[in-house]
Design a protein that fits this description.
By secondary structure, the chain is α+β, with helices and mostly antiparallel strands. It folds into 4 domains: 1-44 and 235-377, no CATH class; 54-229, no CATH class; 380-503 and 688-827, no CATH class; 505-687, no CATH class. It is built from 24 helices and 24 strands. The protein has a 6-stranded mixed barrel. Strands 4-12-1-13 form a 4-stranded antiparallel β-sheet, with helices on one face. Its main location: membrane. Keywords: Cell membrane, Membrane, Transmembrane, Transmembrane helix. This is ABC transporter permease.
Amino acid sequence: MALQTLRARWVSFLGTVVALVLGVAQVASMGLLLMGMFDLPQRPVQRFATAPAVVQPNDPTWNASEHDVGARSLAQAEGVSAALLAKVSATGPTVVDRSFYAQPAGGPATSVGHPWAVAGYGGYHLVSGRSPAGAGEVAVGVGQGRVGQKLTVLTAAGPAVFTVSGTVSAVSWEHAVFFSDAEAAALSPRIDDLVALGPLDAVRAAVAGSQAEVLTGQDRHKADPSATTDRRSLDDTITLVPVMAGVAGVTAVFVVASTFGFAVIQRRREVALLRAVGATPQQVRKMVRGEALLVGAFASAVGTALGLLGAQWLAQLLIGMGIAPSWFTVAISLKWTVLAPLAAAFLVGVGVALGGAVTAAGRAGRIRPIEALREAAVDEAGWTPGRRLLGLLGLVGGVAWAAWIGIASPNSVLSPNTYVMSLTVPVLAAAVLAPFAVGPLTRLLMRPFRRSSGATAMLVREGALTSRRRIAATAAPVLLTVGLAFSLMAATSSLGAARDSGAQNQVSAPYALVPDGTPGISPQVVARVAAIHGVRVAAPLATTIYTPSDGNTDQNDALVVDPAALRDTMKLQVVAGSLDALNDTSMAVADIWDWPVGSEVPVHLPDGQVATLRVAATYRAVRGQDVAYLPMRFAASAAYAKDGLVPDAYVSLAPGTDPAAAAKAIRAAVAGGGASFVSRDRLVSSESSYSTHLIKVRQQSTALIIVLFCFIAILNTLLMATADRRRDLAVLRLAGATPRQVLKFFVGESLLVVAIGTVLALAATAVNLAGLWGALLQLFGSTPIEAPYSVILGITAVSLLLALVGTVLPVGAALRGRSLGFVGTGE
């Protein structure tokens, strides 16, 4: 009977099939993307494509001495040590590679300097001229200079004029500037990699026991210039994909279950007639289960196949947003990383179809035959005990979770995996509670039209009050679209604004120097500014520190800065201790590190230097803004660790200094040096741009996928709901309503549906934002809730437009038919 019913009523099931196909496709795509993290494609080797073996330092780890278990040491944290260089060189010819900042005037900020000896291993070859042979000579890419030209090159040592001795072929993965080996060693003391040309077994034996590894074959890509960026991108992808998969999967399952249940609700008249002619409850449920199984299996199979394409599209979306590396893709094969998510998506689709259909048909199957027609004619309740319990649990859980975040766990908003998922709870709870809210909201929203002329407003009001379940089902996609988009985007904007406000409150200097098309500022440029009368400059140098933690290594960011300059230019919220106690043997750290004031911490620095520093002060900070402030005696170590550039410099003026004259002198001092003189506000904006971008991409990409799916759900649900009401349309026509009046009635009902969904979305969003406001208040102090209201209004307007399209199209088609034909058949 189920198969015969499907053949006869396939049009009625079309909307359900579309919703299920899209839902399963979304679940399959997310699953493939998530499992793709375990089967990443091989990327081509770049810098050392023709090198037989590359020696690269490992990430630092703590090693216990065999003779003294209590003694711990850390090998040179970054770069190749002199001892390792000597061991590898003893095995045969060895080529030293150094990578450092070197930007030709007018060239890209990503330009990298190398010694000429490694050029050939990356596919570079001379196009004209000769290789750089001595001081003051460079070889640049074709188009960056010509042989014999005097070219200004920005380096960590400041701008300097070099002579172009030759030009080299360009490659797609790097903008390189080549120096003589001696010049490169002077510009960068750190050795990044070694190309070992001796016997491989001897090289491995020489490296054994050191904090380094020998890379051969495909592993040589670990030494590529994009390796660090790719690792960061993959980390971002691994963080983002589970969030997207969780939120999008929950939304898809909810919408599909709601749509399938709504399709069965629309057939209550048919089920009622079956009960009236003698069908037992078991027969009704068996028929519905059979239909759901057939529809679910077909739609899930199609959705699973469509998910293969969707996964590729999502991968390209992540690449386009700058989250995933350019070579990231989802490999389609017969491996478990592909088959498992596809099978899971198929089973989810079938399960959702069965669950949505059986739950909705259960109540119709339990009613007595004598009540069947009355139950089918007027839908007064729509508020079953099970739904009431589920909705109340969701409401209490959503409010309690928001209160927990706002009061007891404010740091949760900084963790996207936890926080983004929590935003869905109040929204889904509002969708479950929608039938209960339809009545009060209908009366409230229709109150302004009580005295309107004509019967349209009255018909819309009474129709909604007697069809609460249908109104709730059609309002649910609007609620999910607006509620989730509003919550996610408001959280993104508010968190970004709060971070900016917190960073701005930490900086007391009115001015700053920021990089101008360069990755940092040369210390020489900073020194020129500091030499101006009446100008005070604090120029922190970025570095990395390594500290022991339960037998492992903790890696944290640090800034090397003069303590007096730190006190003059920064307003750190000191929690314990005092910044006045900072000296050459102490440091200030973030309170979230849980290092008590007075404790002595062994700190290992990137150049292998070891120091025990006392914690002089702890200051309030959140993740992403937590650093250690170290004394200036570690400046050389900082230059060794990074590129030797100053990320930002804080500028203040001595009392009595003319601001206009000082600004003019500062701008003259930084001209051509790769730096700009800006206000504090510009500084905060530039410092927070990357973290803000990352947060926006994480949450707005999730919102994008949800909104696209929900847009389709809105159109699909309204088409289903309106197309099934041909009998109502026929009754209106028989009662004397003109086509225009009929269309006006259905449009008015659609507007009411969108209004109800939007009001419920705003209520759910208010719960989310209340928790967010409390959390931001504790983390950053008083800060307003911000949101891209124009975007949210646009999403709401598109939802309204889709609802109108989903109403007008089937009504217009029905109006072209014969009205009397619908009454006699019950259709």
